[in-house]
Design a protein that fits this description.
- With about 475 residues, this protein is α/β, with parallel strands linked by helices.
- The protein folds into four domains: about 100 residues, Rossmann fold (3-Layer(aba) Sandwich), CATH 3.40.50.720; about 60 residues; about 110 residues, Cobalt-precorrin-4 Transmethylase, domain 1 (3-Layer(aba) Sandwich); about 120 residues, 2-Layer Sandwich (Methyltransferase, Cobalt-precorrin-4 Transmethylase, Domain 2).
- The chain is built from 18 helices and 19 strands.
- The radius of gyration is 30 Å and the shape is flat.
Length: about 475
């Protein structure tokens, strides 16, 4: 995070704008909207700024800027067309710990002016850190369309009853649960449809009849986080990620996805790597039950899909035995997501009429896999968690009849910016792992469809093909 987003109160506080052109006028308008006492220093006053002075909402000093103008000021904006003057203002202001913004020069700013969505008292600020104000405005326009103006009235309604709710519930968690039920229920629907009197009446009745010590029943959300790209999450997954009280997450859940989980949710790491389990599966099952029995909404966040090598069945089996409510949200499994981003179709009428997903971390020399079936031609076989056994996987397939020249791929960190795709065959694949220092998570894909990668690759097309 390049900047700390904060909201600064400047109501009735002296703020200075140096410069009086059209850009300065836009900055002045924002300061006035926030209730600031605005003074402008400029040798030449533009028409827009002159009109604001005529209206009596700002004070203009028609002269050159002087360092003494910063005395007593709580915030300053440098909006002149003289780079040296802007730099001087920034240096002096920062030396005096005065927040300063220099138009079109982020390096000289101690704060940035974001693109703003105003649903008073709700405010949403969007910033690209100065990289692209135009992009920030485009994002704002998209959000504007999806956030009804009535949200401001709903926020005012909630604000009016905050003290009443504090008196009804002396516990922070109980208050939060109450407000969540209000904001996801008919009170909010009344407010958003403009029926404020009905919303106010219903909210008052809910507070009056509220149980000061309600018993909340816990629930578990078993959610698939997909292979890594946060854009592949479902809407339902996002909603439950924002609703949970605690999240129990796996090693394969990417950091950008964890950033989407509710900020104040308790986070418990339950990742597993080969021969290194932070929490055993049995203990995870018991943890989910214990947390739910405490009345918490538990997000069990798993990479890929919970029911594809995710032990989701084991976890909900225990929840059923303990009579715990749960929901299951599918995710895009790694075999589908990673091969798609690698430009490798799992099926193709000319090359593959079947697709098989296999766990590759079990002992290859045992009889737990049907190698004769896995070695058929004209099918795609995807091995999960098989990196440590890549040599034995290739040897077993060749031993049971698969041609040694069958194309094979390694997809490392698929769907993420760090994705690598290495192409070889059953003979060369183990060597590619060693020579390229391939690390987990990596999928192994075997089949004629791998040969289509060079033609169909679309994500990060600069990947090196070996």
């Amino acid at each position: 995070m390049k900047h700390l987003p904060i909201f600064l109160s400047i109501r009735h506080k002296p703020c200075l704008v140096v410069g009086a052109g059209s850009i300065a006028a836009r900055k002045i308008a924002l300061l006035l909207k926030a209730g600031a006492d605005v003074s402008v220093v400029a040798k030449n006053i533009g028409s827009e700024v002159a009109e604001l002075e005529r209206q009596g909402v700002i004070r203009c000093l028609v002269r050159n800027y002087e360092p003494a103008d910063l005395t007593g000021v709580k915030l300053v904006i440098a909006a002149t067309n003289v780079a040296e003057l802007n730099a001087e203002i920034s240096t002096i202001a920062q030396a005096q710990n005065i927040p300063v913004n220099v138009v079109d020069n982020t390096e000289l700013c101690s704060f940035l002016m974001p693109s703003i969505i105003d649903r008073n008292p709700i405010q949403i600020a969007i910033s690209t850190g100065g990289a692209s104000p135009v992009l920030a405005r485009l994002i704002r326009s998209k959000l504007e369309a999806s956030i009804p103006s009535a949200y401001g009235e709903l926020a005012k309604l909630v604000d009016n009853y905050r003290e009443n709710v504090k008196q009804a519930f002396d516990n922070v968690d109980l208050r939060r649960r109450f407000w969540e039920s209000v904001l996801e229920g008919p009170v909010a629907e009344f407010a958003l449809s403009g029926r404020m009197n009905d919303a106010q009446k219903m909210l008052g009745e809910l507070i009056q009849s509220a149980d000061p010590d309600p018993e909340y029943k816990g629930e578990v959300y078993l959610v698939g986080a997909g292979p890594g790209d946060p854009d592949l999450l479902t809407f339902k997954a996002l909603r439950l990620m924002q609703k949970c009280d605690v999240v129990v997450y796996d090693r394969l859940v990417s950091e950008p996805i964890m950033e989407l989980v509710r900020r104040d949710a308790e986070k418990i790491y339950a990742g597993k790597a080969s021969a290194n389990h932070s929490i055993s599966q049995e203990n995870i099952n018991q943890l989910l039950v214990r947390l739910a029995k405490q009345g918490k909404r538990v997000l069990r966040l798993k990479g890929g899909d919970p029911f594809v090598f995710g032990r989701g069945g084991e976890e909900i089996g225990e929840l059923i035995e303990e009579n715990i409510e749960f929901q299951v949200v599918p995710g895009i499994t790694a075999a589908s997501g990673c091969t798609t981003y690698a430009g490798i179709p799992l099926t193709h009428r000319d090359h593959s009429q079947a697709c098989i997903f296999v766990t590759g971390h079990r002992k290859i020399d045992g009889d737990d896999l049907n190698w004769a079936m896995l070695s058929h031609a004209n099918q795609t076989v995807v091995f999960y968690m098989g990196l440590d056994n890549v040599q034995r996987i290739c040897d077993a397939l060749k031993k049971h009849g698969r041609d040694e020249n069958t194309p094979a791929a390694l997809i490392e960190k698929g769907t993420t910016p760090a994705q690598r795709v290495l192409i070889g065959n059953l003979n060369t694949l183990p060597g590619l792992v060693k020579s390229n220092d391939v690390r987990a998570p990596t999928l192994i894909v075997v089949g004629e469809v791998v040969g289509l990668h060079d033609q169909l690759s679309w994500f990060k097309p600069g990947n090196k093909i070996l």
